[in-house]
Amino acid sequence: MASINKELNAAVPPTEVASKAKRRTFSVKEKLRILREADACPRGEVGALLRREGIYSSHLCDWRQARDRGELSVVVPVRRGPKPAPRDPDAERIAELEKQLAQAIARAEHAEALVDLQKKIAALLGKPLPDSSGRP
Questions:
Q1: Residues 19 and 27: beta-carbon distance below 8 Å
Q2: Which end of the chain is more exposed for a tag (fewer CB within 10 A), N or C?
Q3: 83 located within any domain
Q4: Long-range CB contacts (< 8 A, 24+ apart) of 72-81?
Q5: Residue 115 — left, alpha, or beta (φ > 0 → left; ψ -120 to 50 → alpha)?
Q6: What is the number of structural domains in the chain?
Q7: How does 48-67 read in b/e, with b if 16+ C-beta sit within 10 Å?
């Protein structure tokens, strides 16, 4: 009895089960090919096509509707999710100008701080700097 079990176990390869089933996807070319074959099938032979391709009749219905709407004529697949907002060239220009203004303000504040520092140092040394009007 033990020899029979060993022979059966040796003849049967170990099975592997995927941890998660992977959903089958069809490209636009595959969908159009299957639709052409389904349209060319004589009456009563569509079932054989469905079994051979491993699809349901609801797939054919959905794909036919998509073809009629013109969605299958697009070669590039449509990306899912929210669509990005179109770029506004004025908004980009405004952002660039605001960035330049912020840099100019930072430079002006830095220069004013340096002038104030120079005035304080000159006052400490006893040699006050002339004002911008030109008077000492």
A1: no
A2: N
A3: no
A4: 72/28, 72/31, 72/32, 74/28, 75/28, 77/28
A5: alpha
A6: 2
A7: eebeebebeeebbeebeeee
Q: Considering 77, 100, 122, which residue would you say is the last residue of a domain?
A: 77
Answer yes or no: are the C-beta atoms of 88 and 69 closer than 8 Å: no
Task: Tokens 């170990």: give the residue.
Answer: 14
Q: What 3-state DSSP class applies to 81? A: coil
Tokens of 104: 């100019």
With b for 16 or more beta-carbon neighbours within 10 A and e for fewer, the 5-22 pattern comes to eeeeeeeeeeeeeeeeee
From first to last of its 136 residues, what are the pLDDT tens digits of the chain? Answer: 555 555 555 565 667 766 777 788 888 889 999 999 999 999 889 999 999 999 999 999 999 999 998 888 766 666 788 988 888 889 889 999 999 999 999 999 999 999 999 988 988 888 877 766 554 4
What range does the domain containing 63 cover? 23-77
**Residue labelled with tokens 């840099």:** 103
Q: Which two tokens stand for residue 41?
A: 């099938």
